[in-house]
Design a protein that fits this description.
By secondary structure, the chain is an all-alpha fold. Helix content is 97%, strand content 0%. It is rod-shaped.
């Protein structure tokens, strides 16, 4: 009977050890998930910043296009005026 209790105790100790190992793995997994979530949050913030920068570039390009169109029209007007007064 004592031998049987010893076997049960040994088996129980093995199960506790496995459980502790599984708990440690779960904690590492949870920590990894937290790190991934942190990286995703930083990536999302970076994407928002890039979107804002892209919008600024687009506005700048539109302003440049408008300025070039005005210059082109002015140049055409200037050439026309030069020919007109010759």
């Amino acid at each position: 009977m004592n031998k049987r209790f010893a076997q049960v105790d040994e088996r129980f100790a093995q199960m506790e050890k496995r459980f502790a190992t599984m708990e440690a793995r779960l904690e590492r997994l949870e920590q990894g998930i937290k790190e991934v979530n942190g990286r995703l949050d930083r990536l999302e913030n970076d994407m928002v910043n890039v979107k804002g920068q892209l919008e600024q570039v687009e506005r700048g390009l539109c302003e440049m296009k408008e300025a070039l169109l005005r210059l082109e029209k002015q140049a055409a007007d200037d050439v026309h005026a030069c020919w007109k007064y010759r």
